[in-house]
Amino acid sequence: MADVIRAEGLVKVYGDVRALDGLDLAVPEGTVLGLLGPNGAGKTTAVRILTTLLEPDSGTAVVAGLDVRKQAAQVRARIGLSGQYAAVDEYLTGYENLDMIGRLYGLGRTRAKVRARELLERFTLSDAGDRPVKTYSGGMRRRLDLAGALVAAPPVLFLDEPTTGLDPRSRTDMWEVIVELVKSGTTLLLTTQYLEEADRLADRIVVIDHGRSIAEGTADELKAQVGGERVEIIVAAPADIATARGVLTQLAEGGVVEVDDHTRRLTAPVTGGAAVLTEALRRLDAANVTLHDVALRRPTLDDVFLTLTGHRTEDDKTEPAEPALAEAVR
Amino acid sequence: MTAVTEKNPDIAYGGLAKALTDGAIVAKRNLIKIKRVPDLLVFSTMSPIMFILLFAYVFGSAIKVPGIGYREFLIPGIFAQTVIFGATITGAGLAEDMQKGIIDRFRSLPMSRSAVLVGRTTSDVLNNVLVITIMSITGLLVGWRIRSSVGEAIGGFLLLLAFAYAISWIMALVGMIVPSPEVVNNASFMIIFPLTFIANTFVPTNNFPAGLKVVANWNPVSSVTQASRQLFGNTGTAPLPDSPWSLHHPIIYSLIWIVALLLVFIPLSVRQYKRAASR
Fold this sequence. Notes:
The complex is a heterodimer.
Chain A: E1 3-14, E2 17-28, E3 32-36, H1 43-50, E4 58-63, E5 66-67, H2 72-76, E6 79-82, H3 94-104, H4 109-122, H5 138-150, E7 156-160, H6 168-183, E8 187-192, H7 195-201, E9 204-209, E10 212-217, H8 219-226, E11 229-235, H9 241-251, E12 258-260, E13 265-270, H10 274-286, E14 291-297, H11 301-309, H12 323-327
Parallel strand pairs in A: 3-8, 3-9, 6-7, 7-8
Antiparallel strand pairs in A: 1-2, 1-4, 4-5, 9-10, 11-13, 11-14, 12-13
Helix pairs in contact in A: 3-4, 8-11, 9-10
Chain B: H1 3-7, H2 15-36, H3 39-59, H4 70-99, H5 102-107, H6 115-141, H7 150-177, H8 181-197, H9 210-218, H10 220-232, H11 245-248, H12 250-275
Helix pairs in contact in B: 2-6, 3-4, 3-6, 4-6, 4-7, 4-8, 4-10, 6-7, 7-10, 7-12, 10-12
């Protein structure tokens, strides 16, 4: 399969911040690539370059066989973009928005009208289609924005954090819409800071941090990189954290235990499954540690991210990048 | 090879014709907004009506202009000021579109790279047509009269609108540079008030202090006002004894300004649009 999106060595510098620092990407035709990273990792900058909105300082990018820099106008005719901030006009109705976008894609008067109604129907916005977007809920705006990206049925789609800020119900609805969409063979690049979202929607995932790709693979491959399972316990009393950490360290793969003092949660990577869990419980009991909760689970993408970068993907802006590693006991 | 399109990607998208068709689509969108948010139009017409009434009845009783009734002298000046303020909508509108990410949407579409600006400035001129119509009616009610031919009067209106259109392109550039529509509104108030007051819009410049008088006489707002007074037949009998060339040939001087502003600010604005990163 040919790569529909291919970027090599993208660099974009703002002042002394390297928003992109040599990013490579490749998305084969008809597949979904999830670009996963925390806020400020460079996801949006990458999308803006690939959609011709921004010129890279160096590096090359080809979309649908066309150079985004030299053949920007032709690239635009072949892509659809739905942004992080729903870029629909709130004074226009949903129908007027889609009709306008259709005309600007060059669909012609009649086709633009028909297409607008079709998409409203498909995104269950028919009833609201003739109301100004001002009156729409956040989820409805996102669906309309996504519909806008699909007006010309472009072969390549870019969705920049399609569910950020949505409530869980709207997020699930949006996922269903996107899953339907990719069944039809569209090539999709999706950015997200939600691991669950990348896991659910993407064929392959590129984890980026500080403008650079730090890992790549399917969700399973990434999880395999982290290996084994996780024993996760929550101790009842803060005073027990140190004791529990000592116990788990003996059992943990590589001796690294992640501790969250705030939630009193300790996580240890292990191999050996249920037997190790039983052993852990026996030793914790012997050490008189009272537990609130206990679990054995497969590693999540969050663990992947933590292992790769030393910090979690969400709630990361308030703390320095290293707390998890600093907390880890070797 | 696609050497031609590589060099001139916009040509592949139909050049001027495409700019106008796409511009019309964007203009239609802006006009729908005026219809949905009529407050905008109410505010942009209420203040000039208020100005006409205040100046005509409050200052008008004290200001004497030789050879002509003050109200007749005043109305073309208020026309000029109002259409210039009307042009600031271009800046505020673009700043709002930038802020809300709509410019990103437009820039990701295979549309002409000047269409958003062409559409914006066009819809703002149409808005000004509406505003000037309402003001003309108000003017007629307080005693303003057109004393020239129909052709000249139309010429007067067109000149005012053309000048406002040129100002729109300055505001387009401003709107894409500043961080928010509020900044456009505040900044334009700070600049346009002096620009339209240090001129012959409300009083003759004869008694201005010397330095200020030079500025006022060469201010293009003065010549646009003077030109429309001439074209509407509102100049009265008073000569302009020590006026410079700009006021003796106000139509030509105004046209020079209009063409110069367009030549400078259309390319600058289009360039800025291509670069502009939405915030």
